[in-house]
Amino acid sequence: MSAPEWTVPPAVVGESETREDLGELEVELLLEAVYRRYGFDFREYAPASLKRRLWRRMTAEGVSTLTQLQDRLLHEPAAMERLLLDLSINVTSMFRDPSFYAAFRQHVVPSLHTYPFTRIWCAGCSTGEEVYSLAILLQEEGLYDRTRIYATDINEQVLATALAGVFPLEKMKQYTQNYIRGGGTREFSEYYVAAYDGARFSRSLTENVVFAQHNLASDRSFNQFNVILCRNVMIYFDKTLQDRVHGLFHESLDMFGVLALGHKESVAFTPYADDYEVVDAAERIYRKIK
Length: 290
Ligand SMILES: C[S@@+](CC[C@H](N)C(=O)[O-])C[C@H]1O[C@@H](n2cnc3c(N)ncnc32)[C@H](O)[C@@H]1O
Description:
This protein has helices spanning about 25-40, 45-60, 65-75, 75-85, 100-110, 130-140, 155-165, 170-180, 240-250, and strands spanning about 120-125, 145-155, 165, 190-195, 200, 210-215, 225-230, 255-260, 275-280, 285-290. The protein is of the alpha/beta class. A 7-stranded mixed sheet has the order 6-2-1-7-8-10-9. A 3-stranded antiparallel sheet has the order 3-5-4. α1 runs parallel beside α3 (about 65-75), α2 packs across α4 (about 75-85) and α3 (about 65-75) crosses α4. Bound molecules: S-adenosylmethionine. S-adenosylmethionine binds near residues 88, 154 and 217.
């Protein structure tokens, strides 16, 4: 993490707080301080969930005011790492929402066969289950060898897990069911070996994957893509940040490229709504046409 470059805003002296009365101003100041000290920008995250997570971190750190939390975050990078984990909600699973993968096979795969080479950006990939699922799907569809997947997340710790490719064995039953419901036709167990530390997924699944840290809130576009996948990430952002990220995706997508958001998110009501046509309405899969 980088050293402070700017001065940090003054801390607000407060009495012991409860979750309900975490003041807007104190929250704003803390987020501003974190941004200036570390470059992590949570200033446009949805306020209710942000307050809940800050409150949880205050309790876990044993501090009773936001001012104390701010102080600790600024002086202890390890505390910042812990907050980062709280704020970046990493829940994920393999073939999560299987109908999404079925729709991807049906509506997106045929157009990918028309390209000699495909670049896919999986933004907010968390611990990588989504990336491994996509790699499996692409292998089965005969596309993996001519695809590069760029898998990014704000959180380096989850990326390290993604790279290791070892997932809890007890989840394999659920993942096998998801895989089948997502259109998988082989034995799911072909893709991993059961080891003492969990299910170790085949290294061939990450041969064409680049894992990298990228912050959707502040980093720029880094390539042009045929497909961008970003599911269950923007729900944590406020409208301004969602629009920024949509701008980033629009700029990063080739013409006729595919934006796959999953059923919780949409391009409707963003400044880019008219620039896409719907490929699958339920799974919120779009094609860029402008
Ligand atoms: C709920 S997980 C979604 C994982 C996966 N896409 C899925 O649908 O299963 C959200 C991920 O978004 C990441 N994230 C949150 N804010 C981010 C940001 N500003 N830039 C990049 N990734 C971010 C989190 O670290 C987390 O890993």
